[in-house]
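Risk mitigation, structural track. In case the binding assays with zinc ion fail to produce interpretable data, a predicted complex structure has been prepared as a fallback.
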Amino acid sequence: MENSLTALEKVILKSKGVTDEMLVKFTELGITSKESFSVVGDAKTLSDITGLSPENASAIMEWAGVQSAAPTAGANVTTGPGGTVLSTDGQKIVVEDSSVIKCTHCDHKQPHDYTSGDLCPNCGKQAEPMTNCYWCYNVGSGKFCRSCGAEYVKNLDYEIAVLLKREGVSKREIARELAAMLDSEKETRLTQLRSGRY
Ligand SMILES: [Zn+2]
Ligand SMILES: [Zn+2]
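Fallback model:
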């Protein structure tokens, strides 16, 4: 086992801001190989014990393949030398906000506690049109039923959709059949429905 850093390692460390005096200190501290940095543990500690700037220290830790502290959310506190607790500032946690609901009438963002059917605080209308599911009879918003996954149909087509279901048309086919159906055909269906033949 080497008892000092190799020439190459020294050159690399120097390129990252390490001076000759620091190299001597590294040896005193027992930092004699690239692997030694994993014993040091993190850039803050390295900077504390060697006098390196935090930037240089973290560049060295990165080169040595030592995970920087707190790379993930929820672990943004780390224990420093002497048991002090260091918070790693500047860690921005970006929350993917794909669940934002906008009012279909005025495009106003709905509050975080919004639930389907709420009225828009900006314009007072129902933020999303609510649709009855012809398949499972849940009420919901959007394009598909959140309960059974059926594709919603226009309100006008609702009764026919229920009829098609009764006729045994599959959940996936109903919206497609309706889209392909002529208005006259729909009227015939509705007349049949209302005449009580179904
Ligand atoms: Zn609105
Ligand atoms: Zn449904």
